[in-house]
Amino acid sequence: MQKRFYLVIGLIVVTAFTGVATGFGLFFRLIYILAITGALAFLWNWSTVRGLEVSVERRTRRARVGDDIEERITVRNKSAWPKSTLEVEDVTDMPGYHNGRVLNLPTKGFRSWRTLAPARKRGIYKLGPVRVSNTDAFGLFRRDQDFGGQDDLVVYPRVHELRDFEIPAGFLTGESAARRRSHDLTPHAASVREYSFGDSLSRIHWNSTARTGRLMSKEFDLGLASDVWILVDLHRDVQAGELEDSTDEYAVSIGASLAQKYIGAQLPVGLISYGDDRYLLPADTGAGQYERIMEFLARSKAEGSVPLEDVISREEQLWGTHSSLVVITSSHREAWTVAVRELGRRRVRVAVILIDGASFGGMFRSMDTVPLLYDAGVAPFVVRMGDDIPVALARPYTFDALAESETGEAV
Q1: What average pLDDT is seen over the chain?
Q2: Which of 29, 183, 272, 355 has its CA 20 to 30 A from that of 221?
Q3: How far apart are CA 58 and CA 149, in angstroms?
Q4: What is the 8-class DSSP label of residue 67?
Q5: What would the pLDDT profile of 382-397 be if each residue is shown by its tens digit?
Q6: Which residues contact 359 (CB under 8 A, 6 or more apart)?
Q7: 319-362 pLDDT, tens per residue?
Q8: At what angle do helices 3-22 and 25-48 cross, to 10 degrees?
Q9: What burial letters (b/e) apply to 10-34, b meaning 16+ CB within 10 Å?
Q10: Where do the domains of the chain lie, and which CATH numbers do they carry?
Q11: Could you tell me if 279 and 271 are in contact, meaning their C-beta atoms sit under 8 angstroms apart?
């Protein structure tokens, strides 16, 4: 019910009280008019949302940021009465997305429309139901009716081809003595074990099977390559911007792009991020690992309460002398640069991609950490809002660029 309904009820009460007190018949006739008007408005509102058939065709179940979400909604009037001022909306929790309109339907008529709207934020969202609403001509009653169910929509981060991005020389140590077990088939057979249900014939080690009289399967490892770790900083206090033009969306997009690059190079890649939850994927190779990383990044939210320096401290046991760590952050805090320096002393190879929070409207100065990173022996890459990310990551940021930036700000 609308606020006007309660106003009419109040008016009826006042009119009735006045009519009883004065005995003047005009007040009683006014009560009848108000009551009849309310009843007609209720019947009008009730009948308008009845006799409708609504169908929705959602052709998009998975997308990336920037991709179009495609839907077609059809509203059909099956009654003998026309329908006016119907508000039709596809209810969703996806930010920046709206699919609705106001329409009139003739007797036995229908309206159908197709919408294309871009996905503007990674995440897992609900699409539906379709809600049809109507308010009577007097604005006394509002009625909503939902049609259809809900569908899940997964929006993955945008992925870029980082052909020119290279971790500085010596960060990838190539072959090492560290081997890790893998569930995928690799060129490196590590040992044999008894056959388990579901093992493919290609895993069976026939020599051991013949020798033991039992089916034996090969176990594989990741070989002798160094691992690459991607650390995405989702601490809520260092984020700025909105939707696709936000520091966390840029950070997650860069993380997904790095995963594609290094998994494509057959290197084991791991992921660590503290957002609304602790997201950890041990380093592994293969298409399955890439899909898991994309799923984790899609689910992650920039709601972390743990600052970057504490994340590094808590998880430092993950990285050894044969690990390369890529830190992606917009943090302006000095403490995390000290943590990066300590990792370098432990011979962990660290690269930093710094997202300039001020360019996204943030009140903090991420760029203040650049000199500290150079002091720690790390030449960072810098990305600003609106940058072409592959170009921005083609070469590290230099002191000359920093001086030019500061001069421009001073001017």
Answers
A1: 85
A2: 272
A3: 11
A4: P
A5: 999 999 999 999 999 8
A6: 384, 385, 386
A7: 988 889 999 999 999 999 999 999 999 888 999 999 999 999 99
A8: 160
A9: eebeebeebbeeeeeeebeebbeeb
A10: 1-156 (2.60.40.10), 181-221 (no CATH), 227-410 (3.40.50.410)
A11: yes
